[in-house]
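Thread amino acids onto this structure.
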């Protein structure tokens, strides 16, 4: 009887598999695992960690602490017909076994019988990272349409590249999130060598019907030349942002931003690559919900880089060197943003996916310093935010001692374009002349143990400069990584 039940189960499985196969041409399952050990110290440059989450065991008062995190992803790709493909990618990302401590009561028993501590209920949740369908030759041959949750990346990711999210709130270091996708519709017209791409993405919608959504629209036109590996792109992205509460304004009551830009790269000689990108922004600016007057926005950003590979084919270690300069326009100090008026020149980072340093470039997004703390009800919370009012110089290099080992380093220098306004208990609203923000050294080693398994180590060190009057510590981030793909 038991043997008959097994045969029946196998028969049903074969029927189901046969029906699935009849509806799809092929199904591919893949995925990856990434485990990280992170040691972090002095992120406020004063001997304590500054982080938004103060409910966990490490409350932010420690000068240094370590923890482990992991990311597990599984992807299913299905070709339904020659012109229809679907992708679903699920992810669980979490810090290992984080417990929340109840301050007001120690009567709650956790599963281990320990009173006052409870496990994070979101730690093992699974999120949808990708879920989209691609329709090739839609309506007519050059058109491809992708609908659903997908990755969007244009050029070097300077304007649109990553929508960094941690929907379950399970990560201390959100910059290492695997969820960078957008809920979007993308249409691509491929007229080789021309490519025209249009997108619409819903960034945020209130659960209760209200005119406070954030949406992204864009058009990107690219051209590839048949010489010198040259390429060029022009783009327009429009972020329609009604998310700021408006209490007192009667005009310009939104943060709508139009971004227009050009990007290009060329190899003037075989072992040199030069690239450049420039963009301008215009629209409106609302800095705080009780701002009295509406303000117009005029901002700009530049990114120029070069890479030299002259010795790459001449030496066994394949050395490369590079240089890059990045500028984000900024606005002068405003002691009372509620009463500020006039044109606002601060750059909006949009959905940048390109980050060249491990510490400084996340200030104002995920972390804050002691001198420039988080300010409630401000659209750009930190006065020293890394995505505006900044000049950045990057010197980079890499060598490959063996085929499986890559060593990389970059040295970053940061300067203000305009002054900062200091805001802390020691020096409230004290105006500080702009100048040297700081310097950062990032060192990396990556070892491919096999084709599927790799190990990595990152050491990042940021030394604050003269714009910080209460800084005497070097921020550091040490990250060890093990990655497996299948």
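Threaded sequence (486 positions):
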């Amino acid at each position: 009887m038991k043997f008959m039940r097994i045969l029946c189960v196998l028969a049903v499985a074969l029927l189901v598999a046969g029906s699935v196969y009849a509806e799809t041409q092929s199904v591919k399952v893949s995925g990856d695992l990434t485990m990280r050990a992170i040691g972090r110290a002095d992120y406020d440059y004063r001997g304590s960690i500054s982080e938004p989450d103060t409910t966990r065991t490490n409350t932010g008062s420690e000068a240094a602490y370590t923890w482990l995190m992991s990311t597990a992803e599984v992807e299913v790709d299905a070709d339904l017909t020659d012109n229809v493909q679907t992708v679903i990618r699920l992810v669980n990302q979490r810090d290992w076994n984080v417990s929340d401590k109840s301050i007001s009561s120690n009567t709650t028993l956790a599963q281990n019988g320990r009173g006052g501590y409870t496990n994070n209920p979101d730690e093992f949740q699974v999120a949808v990272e990708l879920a989209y369908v691609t329709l090739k030759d839609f309506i007519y041959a050059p058109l491809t349409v992708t609908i659903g949750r997908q990755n969007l990346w244009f050029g070097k990711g300077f304007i649109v590249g990553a929508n960094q999210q941690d929907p379950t709130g399970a990560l201390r270091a959100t910059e290492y999130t695997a969820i960078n996708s957008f809920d979007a519709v993308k249409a691509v017209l491929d007229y080789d060598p021309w490519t025209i791409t249009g997108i619409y993405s819903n960034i945020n919608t209130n659960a209760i019907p209200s005119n406070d959504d954030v949406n992204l629209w864009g058009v990107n036109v690219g051209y590839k030349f048949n010489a010198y590996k040259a390429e060029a792109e022009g783009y327009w992205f429009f972020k329609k942002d009604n998310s700021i509460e408006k209490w007192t304004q009667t005009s310009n009551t939104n943060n709508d931003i139009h971004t227009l830009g050009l990007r290009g790269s060329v190899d003037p000689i075989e072992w040199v690559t030069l690239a450049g990108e420039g963009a301008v922004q215009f629209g409106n600016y609302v800095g705080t919900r009780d701002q009295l007057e509406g303000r117009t926005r005029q901002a700009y950003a530049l990114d120029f880089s070069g890479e030299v590979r002259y010795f790459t084919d001449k030496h066994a270690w394949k050395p490369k060197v590079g240089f890059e300069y990045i500028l984000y326009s900024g606005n002068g100090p405003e002691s009372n943003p509620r009463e500020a008026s006039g044109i606002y020149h601060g750059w909006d980072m949009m959905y940048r996916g390109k980050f060249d340093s491990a510490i400084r470039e996340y200030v104002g997004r995920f972390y804050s310093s002691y001198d420039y703390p988080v300010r409630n009800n401000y659209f750009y919370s930190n006065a020293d935010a890394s995505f505006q009012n900044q000049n950045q110089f990057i010197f980079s290099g890499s060598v490959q001692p063996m085929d499986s080992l890559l060593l990389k380093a970059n040295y970053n220098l940061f300067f203000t374009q305009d002054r900062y306004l200091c805001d802390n208990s020691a020096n409230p609203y004290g105006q500080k002349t702009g100048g040297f923000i700081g310097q950062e050294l990032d060192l990396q080693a990556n070892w491919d143990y096999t084709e599927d398994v790799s190990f990595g180590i990152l050491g990042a060190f940021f030394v604050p400069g003269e714009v910080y009057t209460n800084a005497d510590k070097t921020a550091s981030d040490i990250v060890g990584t093990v990655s497996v793909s299948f």
